[in-house]
Amino acid sequence: MASSSRRAVITGLGVLTPIGQTLDAFWHSLTHGTSGVRTVGSFDSSGLPVHFGGEILGFDAKKYIEKDQRKSLKVMARTIQLAVAAAQLALDDSKIDKGKIDPTRFGVEFGAGLIATELEELGAASQVSTNCKPGTVDLEKWGEHGLPCMPPLWMLKYLPNMLACHVSILHNAQGPNNTVTESEVASLLALGEAYRIIARDQADFFLVGGADSRLNPLSLVRQCLFQPVSRRNEAPEKACRPFDRDRDGIVIGEGAGVLALEEYEHAKRRGARIYAELVGFGSAFDRNRDGAGLARAVRAALADAGVNPEQVDHVNANGFSTIKSDVWEARGLKDVFGRCLPDVPVIALKSYFGNLGAGSGTTELAGSLLATTHGQLPPTLNYETPDPACPIHVHADGLRPLQKPYFVKVGFTDVGQVAAVVCRRMEQ
Amino acid sequence: MRRRVVITGMGCITPLGHSVEALYRALLEGRSGVDEITLFNARRFPTKFAAQVKDFDIGKWVADPEPWSNSGANTRFALAAARQALADADLLDNQQVDRTRIGTYLGSGEGIQDFHHLVSLVAQSYQKEKRTVHAPTFERGGLQHFHPGREFEQELHTTPAHLADVYDLQGPNYNCLTACAASSQALGEAAALIRHGDADMMLSGGSHSMIHPLGLSGFNLLTALSTCNEAPQKASRPFDKNRDGFVLGEGAGMLVLEELEHARRRKAPIYAELTGYGSTADAFRVTDSHPDGRGAIACIRNAVKDSGLAPEAIGYVNAHGTSTQVNDRVESLSIKKVFGEASMTVAVSSSKSMLGHLIAAAGAVELIISVMTIRQGVLPPTINYEYPDPECDLDYVPNEAREKRVHNVLSNSFGFGGQNISLVVSRFDN
User: Fold this and answer.
1) Which of residues 359-378 of B touch A (CB under 8 A)?
2) A residues 43-62 near B, CB within 8 Å?
3) A162 to chain B: nearest residue by CA?
4) How confident is the model over B82-97, as a mean pLDDT?
5) CA A320 – CA A394 distance, rounded (Å)
6) Cβ neighbourhood burial of A136 (10 Å; 0-12, 13-18, 19+)
7) CA-based nearest residue to A222, from A324, A125, A115
8) A415 vs B157: CB contact, 8 Å cut-off?
9) All residues at 6 or more sequence positions from A2 whose CB lies less than 8 Å from its CB, including other chains
10) How many CB atoms lie within 10 A of CB B26?
């Protein structure tokens, strides 16, 4: 294995979530059992079988962007605006003097997913292109009369790489720039990659994270068609219940989580506040969706960190809250941590705000990073009845004092892509 | 010392052939893969032509085509190109190697939207006077008409998952989508995973098709495409003074990257070594590249430096060469800046003159071409090069292939939004 003397630490955090748009609000919700899952308010979802989600209320991108740059908001879909805003928050939180970062050593990595077009932007073009047959469009009318009705920069507003591109432009980040598009595991893979890039001396400072907003008619229709989405309309805040026996599917949320990841000496020289050190990363494909690949990714991350399972304070799980994937996640975790005494507690923060898509990994990770600074682990919401098929110790009861120096964050997709990250608390 | 990464397998599906050999033969003959669009009725679009993949039959590449009926061209092309690359590297069904040590890193594009249902549903639910969509009408229609499998197959993580499932690749699994730089970036980062020890072998490359109504619409709206409808095969003319935009292509390119000692131990064929990787961002504008080539210059420089070579050691540059005014000018000046005097003698050509622009898949196919130049000692030309542009004054291997023995090749890919990737491949002598 290659080894590097260059270490990477997390020196800034920015989150925009259904349970808070500041770190304080986010932490307050996590420690007071406040759910961000509620009936969707931004559009009429009455045509769908699901009427709730983890929605961010009152987000105004203008607040996060300098006046002279605001016109670029017009070419940013909501997902991109969330990313740009959370990146600004992370940068502010890191208290770095932007002028002192070498722009060529300043990288950006984001996890992103498909971004749905705003239907209104197709409105006029679609109406001049109809023919009498339902389900078909007159392509000649579309090409000739429809196209001129569309905004010229239409496509740019929805490209997944635009999260990282806009962030790089706004902050003059000329270093490596990548966009990982692996659904819910995307932002953890992006984080792992940024960590390796710093270790191999190709950057000193990274804004890395993920964002996703699927609370719009087109995305929600699509999710309802191909994902097991919870139908608990009568009690939305109870709907996301990872590892609980009565879980019935995912809850779609929206949000962004961005970290400032910095080379350790670089951070130390400027006297930066350090949340934690990123010490290990591993990834794998769980081909049989039975937890074996997940266990392999976690073991690889622990080995990368040189850490035993016994040294791990808690696992910050993926916890989709679906019937199937929670079972194989639990199986994989039990395989790695099953022999630890006492049990390693597991938390699943989707229970507070739902599945943030490509924003999931780093936003959930922020929960554990705040836990390390406060010395207390927040509980999992809605874990009421253990499921014998998920034989892990889910922490669901009050605040638990942190006891050990390391924690593990796991993320995956339900088709089997897995990533695991190991962080270490810094004694300052 | 860092682990060395070599290329032990290659495969492709392109507008000029469904194998590396067929592709390379066509390129050396200077053939164009561009023609009128037949995948849908594009007669009233500003651009009516593209470089389509011809006569592709998924049944030739998978045992049962049925499960792929909902997949987009991205996944189908990827399955075929991956099979070629893995077979080439003797990794198909090979249980002698540890399957958990083979990963996947693609720069693959999205599946294809259900344009007709989407647009007709919007037409039904759009309230013109209010300029809003009546959401419940759209939602009910969508639930009824969109096909669940087809919708799922558009998701960006599905292609690498399918390859990992079908070909039993249980190592790290990634997809990146950085526009036109995606598959080059995937290859660079896949090599980094091998160097770090996360995997011993990586299937890496890209697959994409944007030759569909919304793809063509998006690029036409940006006025990025050539509109040379009277002579489609002349439309892609990189570095020529009369270039007027790029030509859409589609396809897939896949490579097997492998740690050198691992490849040696199992006596895999070694086609070349991946020696250099550079990655930068313009951080300038979402619509234009930096006019002075700030990001491109740093990127090329980083890749050459990473390879441990001097610029003079690069014998051939497989250019990004899109045939847009800005790219070709900026790329030329960037090469000059990095290569200095050597830029007057280095051969540069753009395969996009024949293949069109495969978007996310472009870089991987072009890296395969770069490897082939080292192996065959013949450089593919830039076709349609007729009118010199004073701002593009390098040796573009105009119109005819050229015999030249090269040891090191640079391949550039610059993405919309400012991501720049350069790779260096080098001759490997056992």
Assistant:
1) none
2) 43-49
3) B417
4) 97
5) 14
6) middle
7) A115
8) yes
9) B2, B3, B195, B196, B197
10) 19
Q: What is the pLDDT of residue A428?
A: 53
Structure tokens at B126: 């759009």
Contact between B373 and B265 under an 8 Å Cβ cutoff? The reply is no
- Per DSSP bridges, beta strands A106-111 and A177-180 are parallel
Residues A7-23 have a mean pLDDT of 98
Q: CA–CA separation, A173 vs B224, rounded Å?
A: 25
Q: Which pLDDT tens digit goes with each residue over B385-423?
A: 999 999 999 999 999 999 999 999 999 999 989 999 999
Question: Nearest 10 degrees: CA dihedral of B230, B235, B182, B275?
Answer: 160
Residue A284, strand partner residues:
A418
Whether A282 has its CB under 8 Å from any CB of chain B: the answer is: yes
Q: Is B103 on the interface with A (CB under 8 A)?
A: yes
- Structure tokens that stand for B73 in this block: 């061209």
Burial code of A86-120, b = ≥16 C-beta within 10 A, e = fewer? bbbbbbebbebeeeebebbbbbbbbbbbbbbbbbe
A218/B138 Cβ within 8 A = yes
B114 at A interface, C-beta within 8 A: no
Cβ of A409 under 8 Å from any chain B Cβ?
no
The DSSP bridge partners found for residue A73 are: none
Interface of A with B in 322-361 (CB under 8 A): none
CA distance B399 to chain A (A): 34
Per-residue pLDDT tens for A319-351? Answer: 999 999 999 999 999 999 999 989 999 999 999
Closest alpha carbon within chain B to A126: B123
Residue B217 at interface with chain A, using a CB cutoff of 8 Å? yes
Give residue for tokens 């540890």. B98
Residues A56-83: pLDDT tens digits?
999 999 999 999 999 999 999 999 999 9
CA distances from B253 to A114, A213, B11, B108, B248 (A): 22, 31, 6, 10, 16
Give pairs for B53-60: CB < 8 Å, separation 24+: B53/B13, B53/B14, B53/B15, B53/B18, B53/B77, B53/B209, B53/B250, B53/B251, B54/B15, B55/B18, B56/B13, B56/B18, B56/B80
Please tell me the distance in Å from B151's CA to the nearest CA on chain A: 6
Give the active site residues of B.
180, 320, 357
Q: Which of A4, A7, A2, A18 is nearest to A363 (CA)?
A: A18
Using one digit for the tens of pLDDT, what is the confidence trace for A370-406?
A: 999 999 999 999 999 999 999 999 999 999 999 999 9
Q: Which of A49-53, A129-133, A277-281, B252-256 has the lowest mean pLDDT?
A: A129-133
- The answer to whether ipTM exceeds 0.90 is yes
Mean pLDDT of chain B: 97
Looking at the partner chain, which of B118, B286, B415 has a beta carbon nearest the beta carbon of A166?
B286
Residue to mutate among B74, B95, B119, with most A CBs inside 10 A, is B119
pLDDT of A1 over the 50 cut: no
- Nearest beta carbon to residue A114 from set B3, B155, B213: B155
> Hunting for tokens 């090599």 — which residue is that?
B191
Q: Is residue B227 within 8 angstroms of chain A, CB to CB? A: no
Asked if B420 and B296 touch (Cβ cutoff 8 Å), the reply is yes
CA distance A93 to A366: 13
B213 touches chain A (CB under 8 A): yes
